[in-house]
């Protein structure tokens, strides 16, 4: 394994924790997992703890996701600020973690998915939690600072499925007794002429639930839950920020893209301890 300082210039992997003057990084691509990689991540953990991480998951194998959850996710979760994932990855993270795995990331504010992940509700708590229900749990877990959480998603629903999803959200809003601030940016994959904007209020919680076209932008819908009395300028800025949200940050980006052939040292089958030093 090598780490790169500039294009074409490599450095040896660090053998100890990072100096205190290291406060961040640009882009960390993890395409292979072995003992020395895990040791490097542990050496880097003090840096992770002091910066906001943009995490990209590109793993389509359940066993690999379990390994990442148990060995990498726990090192990063407290610092993840932006997460890019697919629905199968969210389902696997729930299976190997729990249904609140996103809510357990205290810094997480932005989630992007290109794969039909949309918040949904179920009155049957005994059923397995779907990716949509897990997303709803995260969106409805308020941040202490009151800043809205943001889900940016691309959906491929027909009219019947859209009606089912949005009616469930509306029903949950009408019966809500606690507040939640969020913005869902829905990237249109077709004309969606059947989508009807609305503006609802819940007097008990003092909130609005609004569905509208993004201002001067026919490519997105905005689903917004916010206080009835609000700072209009602040929310306008938050909406603009959500619409313009880029997939990758300019710094502190970690991209985990691996397949089973790229797990070394017997780690995936448990024949080697990830904490062992590579000889």
Describe this structure in words.
It is a single chain. Helix content is 27%, strand content 22%. The protein has 279 residues and is α/β, with parallel strands linked by helices. It has one domain (24-262). Helix 3 (62-76) packs across helix 4 (87-96). The radius of gyration is 21 Å and the shape is globular.
At a glance:
This protein has 279 residues and is of the alpha/beta class. Helix content is 27%, strand content 22%.
List the main descriptive attributes of the protein structure presented here.
279 residues; alpha/beta; disordered C terminus; two-stranded antiparallel ribbon; ten-stranded mixed sheet
The count of strands amounts to 12
Total domain units: 1
Helix content: 25-40%
DSSP strand (E) fraction?
A: 15-25%
Strand order of the largest sheet: 3-12-4-5-6-7-8-11-10-9
N-C termini distance: 13 Å
How would a crystallographer describe the biggest sheet?
10 strands, mixed
Number of helices: 7
Structural class: alpha/beta
Mean pLDDT: 81
The rounded Rg comes to 21 Å
In N-to-C order, the SSE pattern is EEEHHEHEHEHEHEEEEHE
Low-confidence stretches: 271-279
> In one word, what is the shape?
globular
